[in-house]
Structure formats: structure tokens, C-alpha cells
Design goal:
The chain crosses the membrane at residues 68-85, 91-110. Keywords: Membrane, Transmembrane, Transmembrane helix. The chain is an all-alpha fold. It has helices at residues 9-22, 27-87, 91-111.
Length: 116
């Protein structure tokens, strides 16, 4: 968690050492202070995770319209290509054109997928 507060074993050991030095009269203040630090660290971590999820969701939602547009354009381009190549008997070229169109659409679809 960059820039965030991290609480480790050393902090708990330091708290216990301070308690030993100050005595039980400061227990409540020490525990409250430590609990506040823990709550702050947890809240920062949760906020970081939520921000990452929002970013992934926003990216996935934005790619849906582009994917539909690419699919429509691909079909509009594929129909005349298929007609011309099919009528002239260039079936191998038609297969290559269709494979290319499919690969472009697959690459675009995979690019827009959220990453975990």
C-alpha cells in the first residue's frame, strides 16, 4: 500500500513496551490510539481496493460500445470482401480475410477484458 500506514509486529511490540513503562493507568489511551491506527490502515487498504475495482469496472463498461462498433464495421467490411472473393473463386483469400477479421475482433475483445 504505497503511501499508506502499515502496522506490523514491531508496532504491537512497541505498544506493549510503552505499556510496561507507563503502567496500567495509560492502557485505555494506548489501546484507543493503536485501534485508531489499525482502523485507519484498514480503511486506506479498503479504499485502495475499491478504487482499483472502480477503475476495472469503468474500463470494462467503456469497451462494450467500442466492441459493438468494431463488430458492425467488421461485418460491413466482410460482406463485400466475401462477395468479391467468392464470385472470383478466391476461397483461400476469403478464408485469410475472415481469419484476419476474427483475429482483430478477438484481440480487441481480449484487450478490453478486466485484469484480476
Amino acid at each position: 500500500m504505497p503511501g499508506g500506514e502499515q502496522i506490523g509486529r514491531e508496532d504491537a511490540e512497541a505498544l506493549l513496551e510503552v505499556r510496561r513503562e507507563l503502567g496500567p493507568s495509560y492502557d485505555e489511551a494506548l489501546v484507543d490510539s493503536f485501534a485508531e491506527r489499525i482502523e485507519r490502515a484498514v480503511a486506506e487498504r479498503v479504499e485502495d481496493q475499491l478504487a482499483r475495482r472502480r477503475e476495472v469496472t469503468r474500463a470494462a463498461a467503456g469497451s462494450g460500445g467500442r466492441q459493438l462498433a468494431l463488430g458492425i464495421v467488421s461485418m460491413v467490411a466482410a460482406i463485400p470482401i466475401s462477395i468479391v472473393l467468392g464470385v472470383t473463386g478466391n476461397y483461400a483469400a476469403m478464408l485469410v480475410a475472415w481469419v484476419g477479421i476474427v483475429l482483430v475482433n478477438m484481440a480487441h475483445a481480449l484487450q478490453g477484458r478486466p485484469r484480476s
